[in-house]
């Protein structure tokens, strides 16, 4: 009966096959790229859909299967897959967005001479991401975790001749690696503390049940925080968020797939997967909540002042991921995962819409756009749906998930509730600003020749727009279907009137203020820049986080390296030269002995003999 | 029973390069093509043989079946000393053997050398003497891993030194002669210390009595098996005090002497590994030696240091290793971080790789210091993995230099455009080097860290910082070369030719295989390491 579930390991193999095929074919087969890539993703999507449908009914059981990867003495490291409702949901999200992005790229990347390579990378990414989702233990999750990172790196640096792309790719890899190092330590810690060194999620769940007490709270907190460090890196949480805005140097479909819908959500997924560890440690939960809340408001304010359409959306992603983290930290697993689910659709939609715009106007500066709505109707309408969903306006999907998070906050942590509302206000404001500047008003300098994108690009927009509008109805305050399906337990209704009203109010207020400034023009756009130029500068530069890193980390490391270079050359290298000089000196001295006088040789032989005898005799009296 | 046990397979592997050497010697001087072919064949034969042996080895669950032993020379000692002594001799013997520790390294040596022989197409002069030294070097390396007698080990060790000396000094770059001299001097010091340690070892633990009825034969020899048995057996004469033996015990090895020997071995092999602060000699070798020789140097020769440390340090003196575990781990962490920080600042790609080797050898030290099965597996895995990866990187360096005439980072850039294949391989090799899962480097690092974490958490955490730094310096260098705007003068560069592409693909395939399916290596190593630990634990319990 679990036929499809048991075949879940096949899902990642379709994109893997596509990747291998594309790599083998080489870049000569330009046409084949889109076809093979999309086919791989589509096959994966169909199977994923079948798995979810199969599991919709009551009582779907988790299924896992693993093989030994390395067996060393009593220790065995295993690699395997596991299907739960959470992973099944993720499978569908990943494969669907991947398929749509594959389709979209056929138009967007059409004229790129390395399009086959592009599709190869995308397929490799899809494979890795699906592997990550399906992993049944932390080690194999970590393996795929690194692989998605490297695919992200390859795709951010896809246009490798651009120095900025090179720098961004490098930065993305290194900054996330800091988080990965934490996750690795967390895994090491877990390995030595878990009974039987088990790393699989099922065992983790049973060990961290809050009562067994097999592992002390201190260690639990440490493990949780180290895992969270990994999530901070991958999901662009403060203070490791700096790589995500720069990652926008990659092709826009990649930003939609990797840096909005799937990979960056892996941090949230990781915490959801190891949630039992977190629940065992109040300190860890609090840390997650506050880091998430801070990131949400921090990034939302930065997004207000950005001028690059993709950077606005990137900061928005950081902010929304912060929301998800906050939900998890507040104890609302469903809220975090639900927001991940809806966000994947509307943020992918917004990025693909932005791509369609960039494709048409060849600039990313929103001040050079304007009045595009009349020229690009499908893009404008679908973008509007995405913007409303993100701003949390009912009945679009973002409203339901955001409301669920705010409800969780109002019940447990009023401070974070206020933070969440403030972030929601900023979100609505920057989306209104973005929308009005790009699509409304007078045509900008770059809008003249703009025209709608081809159908292969607009069709994915429409599909995503439908999902962004409707996906929220799986979980509403009066119908907790999604939550109970996810957790396997019936959940009580969780509506909070205050939260609903407040969240709608701030969303509408944000949109209204945005309209006043950027739509109607009732308030001067330059007002803020005139009154508090330092504030605008601060926000434009993202609170100078990059500069701070350069001064506090990069520079000192360079300096240490330079100092060590001198040490290596003169002090340690001096040792070698000293050895050389000493040998040469010894050689000269010995050469002086070879003066042809038999007496000298005799003397040397005699001394040698005495030393030898002394050594042999003395050997017996060795202490 | 397999056919391999009936033939002297180890000797065949060891002597195949020598046979090739003879052929090369007999060929006329002008026939460089023939010589290259002969040399390549002479390296591929031992590779195929060791591959066969490797496959057979797994089925046998250990390598004792292949042991070979011949008496080479006997020096009679004074036999009037005792009654009933039929013979009192010093035996030099030709003893070969493989176990789970050496088997992977034999295969690695044969593989890397075969690939380096292919890469030697770039050699421009005096082919005959080049290939003579080259093949002699291979026999030396194989001998080091196969020898089961400390003197035989020493002889092979020295052969590699001499061969390397000429390979660097004649075929190297501008400062080749200085580099060769420095290499010989510094390694010579290491060898001297090693020889002294071996002599002391043989004089105490290298003693065996073969009882045959009334008559006994007393034998001193460098037999590794004897030395190991004597040291491990608490009732052997080596481990008894004079009082327990009636007042006189010339064979006793006191604690102080054990420590002295251990430290001597640590220094001798530490120079080769290299352990900070004994590393500077190898920087010059990396920059001045011809790339095909550096492939071997970085891929195999450095591993001889680690192997020696493992074989003679850890196995013979486990108590000392255990007590000094923190010291070894600290040295490992210093190696990792020091190498990484310096690699980050280098402007010359070869120096980046040289410092990267120092950093990666730190992982080996961590694995040894862990002193458990996982850690040892990690250390050994790292030897093989780093051997493959650094060989691949220097293979690319050779091909790169052929085309651009430089390996300075500031002068390179944008090569991905004209050389997509080689750039792709370089990038993959770089990713392997920084420990990307799916490639061999990750498994090694993970096992070493995992092993060490059991006893030394803070040092492990410091070591893990290294993975971030490694990412930084590897990507900095590799992206500098491949990414970025293409430089005018490199516009017409040709991508890899077939003869260059084949070794790249082969090495990459092994790196990928070990990364995806590490059991192919760990299971083999397990046959020895598992038993080893039982033995060490039993000894500790008994003594």
TrEMBL record, chain A:
Localization, per the record, is: Cell membrane; Membrane
Q: Which Gene3D superfamilies match?
A: 1.20.5.2700
Its GO CC terms?
Answer: plasma membrane
Looking up Pfam families in the UniProt record yields:
Proton_antipo_M (PF00361), Proton_antipo_N (PF00662)
Q: Which terms does the record give in the GO molecular function aspect? A: NADH dehydrogenase (ubiquinone) activity; NADH dehydrogenase activity
Q: Among its keywords, does the record have Transmembrane helix?
A: yes
Which segments constitute the NADH:quinone oxidoreductase/Mrp antiporter transmembrane domain?
135-420
Where does the NADH-Ubiquinone oxidoreductase (complex I) chain 5 N-terminal domain start and stop, copy by copy? 69-119
UniProt GO BP: ATP synthesis coupled electron transport; electron transport coupled proton transport
Q: Where are the transmembrane segments?
A: 6-25, 32-53, 86-104, 116-135, 141-160, 172-194, 214-233, 254-275, 287-305, 312-331, 337-358, 378-396, 416-441, 453-474, 494-518, 601-622
Q: Does the keyword Transmembrane helix apply?
A: yes
Q: Which UniProt keywords apply?
A: Membrane, Transmembrane, Transmembrane helix
Q: How does it sit in the membrane?
A: Multi-pass membrane protein
The family classification in the record reads: Belongs to the CPA3 antiporters (TC 2.A.63) subunit A family.
User: Which NCBIfam families does the record match to this protein?
Assistant: NDH_I_L, PRK06590.1
- What this protein is called in its record is NADH-quinone oxidoreductase subunit L
């Amino acid at each position: 009966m679990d036929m499809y579930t048991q075949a879940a390991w096949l899902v990642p193999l379709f994109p893997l096959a596509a990747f291998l095929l594309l790599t083998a074919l080489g870049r000569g087969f330009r046409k084949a790229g889109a076809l093979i890539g999309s086919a791989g993703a589509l096959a994966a999507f169909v199977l994923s859909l079948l798995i979810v449908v199969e599991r919709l009914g009551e009582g779907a059981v988790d299924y896992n299967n693993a093989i030994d990867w390395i067996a060393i003495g009593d220790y065995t490291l295993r690699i395997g897959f596991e299907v739960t409702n959470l992973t099944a949901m993720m499978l569908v999200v990943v494969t669907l967005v991947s398929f749509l992005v594959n389709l979209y790229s056929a138009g967007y990347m059409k004229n790129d001479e390395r399009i086959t390579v592009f599709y190869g990378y995308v397929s490799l990414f899809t494979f890795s991401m699906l592997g990550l989702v399906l992993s049944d233990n932390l080690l194999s999750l970590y393996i795929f975790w690194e692989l998605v990172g490297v695919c992200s790196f390859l795709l951010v640096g896809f246009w490798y001749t651009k120095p900025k792309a090179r720098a961004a790719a490098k930065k993305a890899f290194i900054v996330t690696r800091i988080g990965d190092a934490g996750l690795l330590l967390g895994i090491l810690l877990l390995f030595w503390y878990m009974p039987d060194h088990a790393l699989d999620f099922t065992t983790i769940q049973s060990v961290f049940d809050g009562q067994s007490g097999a592992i002390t709270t201190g260690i639990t907190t440490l493990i949780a925080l180290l895992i969270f460090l990994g999530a901070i890196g991958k999901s662009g949480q403060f203070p490791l968020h700096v790589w995500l805005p720069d990652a926008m140097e990659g092709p826009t479909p990649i930003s939609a797939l990797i840096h909005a819908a799937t990979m960056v959500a892996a941090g949230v997924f990781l915490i959801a997967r190891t949630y039992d560890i977190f629940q065992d440690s109040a300190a860890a939960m609090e840390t997650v909540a506050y880091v998430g809340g801070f990131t949400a408001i921090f990034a939302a304010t930065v997004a207000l002042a950005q001028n690059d359409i993709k950077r606005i959306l990137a900061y928005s992603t950081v902010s929304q991921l912060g929301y998800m983290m906050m939900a998890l930290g507040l104890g609302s697993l469903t809220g975090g995962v639900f927001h991940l689910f809806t966000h994947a659709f509307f943020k992918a939609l917004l990025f693909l819409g932005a791509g369609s715009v960039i494709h048409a106007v060849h600039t990313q500066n929103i001040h050079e756009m304007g009045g595009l709505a009349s020229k690009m109707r499908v893009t404008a309408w679908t973008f509007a749906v995405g913007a409303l969903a993100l701003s949390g306006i009912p009945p679009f999907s973002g409203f339901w998930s955001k409301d669920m998070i705010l409800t969780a906050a109002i019940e447990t942590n009023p401070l974070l509730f206020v933070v969440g509302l403030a972030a929601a206000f900023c979100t609505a404001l920057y989306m209104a600003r973005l929308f009005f500047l790009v699509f409304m008003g007078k045509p900008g300098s770059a809008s003249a020749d703009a025209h709608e994108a081809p159908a292969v690009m607009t069709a994915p927009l429409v599909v995503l727009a439908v999902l962004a509008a409707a996906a929220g109805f799986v979980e509403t305050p009066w119908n907790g279907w999604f939550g109970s399906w996810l957790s396997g337990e019936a959940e009580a209704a969780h509506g909070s009137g205050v939260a609903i009203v407040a969240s709608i109010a701030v969303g509408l207020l944000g949109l209204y203020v945005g309209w006043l400034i950027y739509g109607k023009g009732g308030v001067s756009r330059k007002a803020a820049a005139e009154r508090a130029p330092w504030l605008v500068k601060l926000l434009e530069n993202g609170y100078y986080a990059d500069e701070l890193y350069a001064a506090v980390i990069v520079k000192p490391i360079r300096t240490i390296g330079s100092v060590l270079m001198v040490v290596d050359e003169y002090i340690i290298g001096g040792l070698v030269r000293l050895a050389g000089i000493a040998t040469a000196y010894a050689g000269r001295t010995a050469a002086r002995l070879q003066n042809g006088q038999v007496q000298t040789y005799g003397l040397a032989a005699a001394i040698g003999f005495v030393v030898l005898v002394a050594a042999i005799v003395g050997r017996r009296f060795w202490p | 029973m397999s056919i391999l046990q009936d033939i002297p397979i180890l000797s065949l592997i060891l002597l195949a390069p020598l046979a090739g050497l003879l052929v090369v010697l007999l060929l006329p001087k002008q026939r460089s093509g023939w010589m290259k072919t002969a040399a390549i064949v002479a390296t591929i034969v031992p590779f195929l043989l060791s591959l066969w042996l490797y496959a057979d080895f797994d089925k046998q669950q250990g390598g004792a079946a292949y042991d070979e032993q011949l008496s080479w020379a006997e020096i009679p000692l004074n036999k009037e000393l005792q009654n009933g002594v039929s013979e009192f001799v010093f035996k030099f013997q030709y003893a070969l053997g493989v176990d789970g520790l050496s088997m992977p390294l034999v295969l690695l040596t044969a593989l890397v050398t075969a690939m380096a022989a292919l890469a030697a197409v770039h050699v421009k002069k005096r082919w005959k003497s080049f290939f003579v030294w080259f093949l002699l070097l291979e026999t030396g390396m194989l001998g080091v891993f196969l020898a089961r007698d400390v003197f035989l080990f020493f002889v092979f060790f020295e052969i590699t030194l001499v061969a390397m000396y000429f390979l660097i000094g004649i075929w190297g770059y501008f400062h080749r002669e200085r580099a060769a001299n420095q290499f010989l001097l510094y390694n010579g010091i290491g060898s001297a210390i090693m020889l002294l340690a071996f002599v002391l070892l043989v004089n105490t633990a290298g003693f065996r009595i073969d009882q045959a009825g009334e008559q006994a034969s007393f034998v001193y020899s460098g037999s590794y098996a004897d030395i190991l048995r004597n040291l491990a057996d608490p009732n052997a004469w080596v481990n008894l005090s004079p009082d327990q033996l009636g007042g006189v015990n010339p064979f006793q090895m006191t604690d102080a002497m054990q420590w002295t020997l251990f430290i001597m071995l640590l220094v001798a092999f530490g120079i080769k590994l290299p352990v900070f602060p004994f590393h500077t000699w190898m920087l010059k070798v990396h920059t001045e030696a011809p790339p095909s020789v550096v492939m071997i140097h970085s891929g195999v020769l450095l591993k001889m240091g680690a192997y020696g440390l493992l074989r003679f340090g850890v196995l013979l003196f486990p108590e000392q290793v255990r007590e000094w575990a923190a010291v070894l781990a600290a040295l490992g962490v210093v190696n990792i971080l020091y190498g990484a920080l310096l690699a980050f600042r280098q402007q010359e790609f070869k120096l980046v790789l040289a410092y990267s080797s120092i950093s990666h050898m730190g992982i080996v030290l961590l694995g040894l210091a862990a002193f458990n099965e996982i850690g040892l597996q990690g250390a050994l895995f790292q030897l093989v993995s780093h051997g493959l990866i650094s060989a691949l990187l220097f293979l690319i360096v050779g091909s790169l230099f052929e085309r651009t005439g430089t390996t300075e980072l500031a002068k390179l850039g944008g090569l991905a455009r004209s050389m997509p294949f080689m750039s792709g391989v370089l990038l993959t090799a770089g990713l392997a080097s920084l420990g990307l899962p799916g490639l061999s480097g990750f498994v090694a690092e993970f096992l070493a860290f995992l092993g060490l974490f059991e006893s030394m958490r803070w040092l492990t955490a410091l070591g893990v910082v290294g993975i971030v730094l490694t990412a930084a310096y590897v990507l900095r260098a590799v992206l500098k070369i491949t990414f970025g705007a293409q430089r005018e003068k490199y516009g017409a560069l040709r991508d890899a030719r077939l003869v260059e592409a084949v070794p790249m693909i082969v090495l990459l395939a092994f790196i990928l295989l070990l990364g995806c399916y590490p059991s192919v290596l760990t299971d083999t190593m397990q046959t020895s390491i598992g038993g080893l630990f039982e033995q060490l634990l039993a000894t500790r319990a008994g003594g």
